[in-house]
Amino acid sequence: MYFAEGLTWEICIVGLSLTVFTLINLLTKPYKHKSDLLLCLWLLLLNIPLLQTALSHQGIDSPAFNLYTDPMLTLLHGPILYWYVRILVSSEDAKILKSDLLHLIPFVLFYLLYISMDHPHSMRPSIGSPDIAIGSAGEGEVMSLFRPLMVHFGLINGLVFVVYSIVTIYALVQHQKTITEIFSQNDNEISLKWLYTLPATFAALVLLNFMNENVLESAPVIDPLTFHMMSFLSFIILLCFFGVKQKPVFFLRKPSFENKIESETPIENSDANDNDLSDEAIARVIEDMQAYMRRGKPFINPDFSVYSLAEALNIPRRNLSQVLNSRLSKNFYQYVNEFRIDEVKALLQDPNHAKSTILDIAFRCGFKSKSSFNSLFKQYCDVTPSQYRKKVRQG
To answer: Consecutive sets of 10 residues in the chain, 395 residues long: mean pLDDT of each?
Structure first.
């Protein structure tokens, strides 16, 4: 038991220390976006159980602090996950709407219910005892009706987070489709694939916790309280490692030109629908686009986006996307990376670059990731980059 208490204390200190360092990093940034502030709030909420446990380990027990920072706060994690993702994938400056307050209803109801009840001791998991102990023989009949809700709070809290996880995953899937029309890269900061680890981590921890406390109830591998603190620490590590460097996907990537050009009349079109260009206009856009890509080679810039191309051609982004999708049957990501692959092939055939490594050539042509480069090269050329270079040298 002493070992378990010591390990729990160390976990709490690691989580609290890591959070303090991350908060300082986020709050001292020259520009703080709403997503940064929301991330700070999320980290503070995740650290409350760690702080309570650390204080208890030192013999400091404040019933008032434990009461008003009760476990009902965990009902906020689902809404915060959803809001955080929505802010990151929003193409405009995301705002908190009145309808967003509806997401707080479960938390408010459970929170008010909890602080209105008697509490023999705080809600802390332990071997051989329920996760929650509330109520007394003298509590009112009305309050006693709600006791089953509180007893099964862990299950309810888990279901709430699962629902928000599903909504969040759907938003991320839709985001994957959007970014291929906008960006020429698909790195972690743009794709937000790291956010999938949050629901996945939650599911894994719930399963392991269930096995530890129920399947192995007679001899649990890990003390339940220690396991719960490890669970909170897992989320803290993920958010601190990825969240501190995460920027809103579209923020500061959309030129001011875009706001201006989108409000102007689109280039010549044949129908009343502004999104339908005439054949002549489409042919002109394709000709200008191909010439610009070959002459200027803007694709060697890893951050080259559809907004940059639209600005260079002086046409609205929506018209450019229409041309790519309807006439070339490609999204922006595919279109740009075909030019990058062709440039890589040209340099691999160039004797002046015979001593350059394949990776150096790939980075010079605009790729940022070795894995994405190898995957795209194999997709377009049916051979790996090294096989292609070998074939060129042999031929």
So the answer is: 68 96 93 91 95 88 83 93 92 77 92 77 46 47 65 84 94 92 89 92 85 65 84 94 89 52 42 60 92 94 93 90 90 95 94 91 94 92 93 84
Placement of tokens 């049957």 in the chain: 329
pLDDT value of position 150 = 74
3-state secondary structure of 134: coil
Give the pLDDT confidence score for residue 302 in this predicted structure: 92
Tokens linked to 115: 């602080």
Residues 22 and 25: their CA atoms lie apart, in Å, by 5
Q: Are 99 and 134 in contact (CB under 8 A)?
A: no
Of residues 44, 40, 64, 52, the one with CA closest to residue 8: 52
- b/e for 82-98, b at 16 or more Cβ within 10 A? bbbbbbbbbeeebeeee
Instruction: List, in sequence order, every residue forming a beta bridge with 126; answer none if it has no partner.
Output: 129
Round to whole Å and give the CA distance between 10 and 383. 51
- What pLDDT score was predicted for residue 2? 43
End-to-end CA distance of the chain: 71
* CA dihedral sign of residues 386, 387, 390, 395: negative
CA nearest 54: which of 123, 85, 8, 103? 8
Helices (H), ranges, 254-384: 256-263, 279-296, 306-313, 317-326, 332-349, 358-364, 370-381
Among 264, 208, 211, CA closest to 231: 208
| pLDDT, position 59 | 85
The predicted structure's pLDDT at residue 241: 94
pLDDT at residue number 211: 78
CATH architecture observed for domain 256-394: Orthogonal Bundle (1.10)
* Residue ranges, CATH 1.10.10.60, the chain: 256-394
Class of domain 2-243: mainly alpha
Tell me the C-alpha to C-alpha distance, in Å, between residue 356 and each of 106, 196, 341, 366: 60, 37, 16, 15
Name the nearest CA neighbour of 307 among 88, 34, 91, 86: 91
* Cα dihedral: 262, 267, 269, 274 (round 10): 0
Instruction: Quote the pLDDT of residue 15.
Output: 96
Amino acid at 70: D
